[in-house]
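Postdoc handover notes: sequence design on the structure in folder B. Input tokens:
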């Protein structure tokens, strides 16, 4: 299996560790519970050509079912919005196109001057301005795309895409663990959502979502619940980025995650 992307998650476990207990009759070997933070590597496996054909078929099924349920397509909604001068009007399209060109030009200037030695003052100023322009236009384009996604979120296309992203997450999310009874500590990838078919794996996902930790003492199930809680948001983000062709490998996905969600992470830290 080829990996598309991997990342680490941390979780707390409680282990029984040996210690020497002092008693009236002298030291006695005993155990005590101790909290420990461990790290687990999560991985998204890259779908094969056959998998992508299955994905297209699944998307088509969902798309048609949402249309039959009465949802508009993106094209239908875009025409409606364009007719009333909304976010898909020609005026807005022209403004965004100009912003994209500014962003591309700024990236070319950065690429040309970045890392160069002995820049004069004028060139340094050009590089500084290009970086500011690139950051501001990138943010504006992302905000526009986010607003557009919000407006189109109730279309048949968007609903089907949400289902498809879930399909990828359920079928291609793995975690790394040591192979049982392997004396050398060999590690392999294991599916996060267990089951023989997509329906079984999705049902397992729903069970993990609904599971309260006090409801079970099964250590394996508790572990998967913790891994799910720690990784699901990132899994969704990575698949969405990859599916929309914003990035295609570990390095580019890392960069895109940072560009798109670094502000969200900062806000979370402030709330804590």
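Designed sequence:
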């Amino acid at each position: 299996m080829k990996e598309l992307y991997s990342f680490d998650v941390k979780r707390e476990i409680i282990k029984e560790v040996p210690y020497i207990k002092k008693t009236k009759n002298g030291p006695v070997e005993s155990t005590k519970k101790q909290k420990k933070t461990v790290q687990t590597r999560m991985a998204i496996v890259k779908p094969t050509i056959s998998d992508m054909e299955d994905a297209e078929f699944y998307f088509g099924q969902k798309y048609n079912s949402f249309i039959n349920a009465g949802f508009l397509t993106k094209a239908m909604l875009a025409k409606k919005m364009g007719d009333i001068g909304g976010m898909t009007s020609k005026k807005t399209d022209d403004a965004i196109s100009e912003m994209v060109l500014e962003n591309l030009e700024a990236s070319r200037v950065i690429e040309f001057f970045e890392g160069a030695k002995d820049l004069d003052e004028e060139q340094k100023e050009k590089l500084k301005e290009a970086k500011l322009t690139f950051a501001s236009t990138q943010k504006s384009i992302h905000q526009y795309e986010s607003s557009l996604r919000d407006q189109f979120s109730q279309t048949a296309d968007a609903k089907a895409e949400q289902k498809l992203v879930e399909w990828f997450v359920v079928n291609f999310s793995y975690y790394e663990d040591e192979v049982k009874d392997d004396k050398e500590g060999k590690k392999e990838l294991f599916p996060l959502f267990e089951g023989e078919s997509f329906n079984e794996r999705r049902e397992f996902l729903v069970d993990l979502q609904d599971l309260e930790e006090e409801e079970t003492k099964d250590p394996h199930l508790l572990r998967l619940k913790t891994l799910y809680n720690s990784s699901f948001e990132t899994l969704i983000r990575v698949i969405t980025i990859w599916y929309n062709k914003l990035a295609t490998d570990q390095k580019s996905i890392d960069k895109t995650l940072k560009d798109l969600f670094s502000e969200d992470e900062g806000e979370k830290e402030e709330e804590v």
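Context for whoever picks this up: Strands lie at 3-23, 26-45, 173-178, 187-191. Don't rerun without checking with the PI first.
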